[in-house]
Amino acid sequence: MSLAVHCAAPEQGCGRHLRQTALSNPPARLQVTPDHHFVLDRHPSHSNIIIGAGFSGHGFKFGPVVGKVLCELSLGLLPSHDLSPFKIQRFQNRSKPRL
């Protein structure tokens, strides 16, 4: 991975430092589900646990609606959006992924 950096004060060596920092930090690991969709659901065995996971770096775009439906779930309300595509049970019949 390479990263081009513009340095406003090259005489102070900031360009070298920024390049070393960018190259020495490994890329972030994305957390995704096998089907690349979120999980928004109650835990299958413990109904007092609400799960919101698998956002893989693009979940920030959905923050307001995800917050709303997770709040609704936690309050025992009927979610204002259809959460069937985001149920954790969709993975029950899948084999475990290989590492």
Low-confidence stretches: 1-7, 17-22
Distance between the termini: 23 Å
Strand-pairing-aware structural class: alpha+beta
Element-by-element helix/strand order: HEEH
| Radius of gyration from the alpha-carbon trace, in angstroms | 20 Å
Largest sheet: spatial strand order = 1-2
Mean pLDDT, rounded to whole units?
A: 76
Q: For the report, how would you describe the main beta sheet? A: 2 strands, antiparallel
Instruction: Estimate percent helicity.
Output: 10-25%
State the shape: globular
Number of E strands: 2
Strand residue content: 5-15%
Whole-number count of domains = 2
The helix count comes to 2
Would you mind describing this structure in some detail?
- Pfam families: DAO.
- With 99 residues, the chain is an alpha+beta fold.
- The protein starts with 13 loop residues before the first helix and ends in a 25-residue tail after the last helix.
- The chain has a two-stranded antiparallel sheet.
- Mean pLDDT is 76; it is low at 1-7 and 17-22.
- The protein has two helices and two strands, in the order αββα.
- The protein folds into two domains: 1-28, no CATH class; 39-91, no CATH class.
- It is 23% helix and 8% strand.
